[in-house]
Amino acid sequence: MAWVEGEIFYAGGFNVKTLDTTGAGDVFHGGFIYGLLQNWGVEKILRFANAAAALKCLDLGGRRGIPTLEKIRPFMMSS
Predict the structure, then answer these.
(1) Terminal Cα-to-Cα distance of the chain (whole angstroms)
(2) What is the mean pLDDT of the chain?
């Protein structure tokens, strides 16, 4: 959820079989910042950040499951 210029934007999370949520918030923040730097709209930024965090949850550990762009894009398109 994000509040931008008085408007609330919401993007639901992805349904994945979670193994470990360690680091998911950090990955979400990284994905959000990446989207900002790409000058994407808020809805796309939230969806991208949610996808990155969801993919992170598929693996154990705080760093091992961090997804690459090559994994995030197809996941977003298939979900």
Answers:
(1) 19
(2) 96
